Amino acid sequence: MWIMMRRFCIFVGMIGLILIASGLVLAQEAEKQQPEYGWQKELIGGLNFTQTAFDNWAQGGENTLAWQINVNGKAARDEKKYKWDSAGKISYGMAKLGDIESRKSVDEIRLESVFTYLLGTYVNPYVAASGETQFTTGYEYTDDSKVEMSNILDPGYFSQSAGFGYEPVDEFKTRLGFALKETITRDYPAPYADDPETEEVEKIKAEAGLESVTDFSKSLIGGILLTSKLELFSNLKGLDEIDVRWDNIFSAKISKYIDVSLNIKLFYDSDISTERQLKQALTIGLTYLFL
Questions:
Q1: pLDDT digits (tens, 9 = 90+) for 135-150
Q2: Can you give the residue range of the structural domain that contains 267?
Q3: Residues 81-97 as b or e (16 or more Cβ within 10 Å = b)
Q4: Domain of 117: which CATH number?
Q5: To which H or E segment does residue 210 belong?
Q6: Segment holding 161, helix H or strand E
């Protein structure tokens, strides 16, 4: 019991540090505006394309072709006593280098919905649910072969949580609550869902613990917009078993339809790898606002 309490205190302490840091950044609270009740919707689509071709080029080089489609949507309903925020993200892209067959460069489907009951303060109770998977088969490539390692809903990640959220200003909000997290698989239970310490092959893994989600957005110098989302989940079994997903996007609008963005994503899950995983993507392409 003492070990569980200590781990709980450490986890809560980490959340406290996040709140303190955010308080320093947002030292001056924005003036409250008259709320606009009802639905607010947004749907943005983007297409990025890169192509390079060589013909009798003395300096050498490889023909390249890469493309990526991004669709981001939001739907928010604000009322006097509650607010309901939902968001979805779809990303898919392929890349081809020289004579090598086209390979997937990005593949993500992510949905999240948060319902908050407003008490008239900065701290309000909420319930939330999220899901994440991919479109097509993922491969691990070697010099002369490829091995399948993932597919749609294989794995699929789902979570449900309830707790309290804190939103002092529009640019910053965080929530902390008890959560259930499920990982489902079909053909690839290892390393996503299977417990190597048992003889049975588990295709579904369910965990209970604490979840923290922090969203931060801020306009920087030069018209650059920073959007950051930090997600932590702890099953309270140990510090090395705290799952971390930190997604950061720096974006800037060059013209009405052309954007440039830098995406840096950090991921850690000790069940998949004992080392942190890092992904970086710099893109420039067409962006269109549908809603």
A1: 999 999 887 889 999 9
A2: 2-27+45-289
A3: eebebbbbbbbbbbbbe
A4: 2.40.230
A5: strand 204-219
A6: strand 156-169
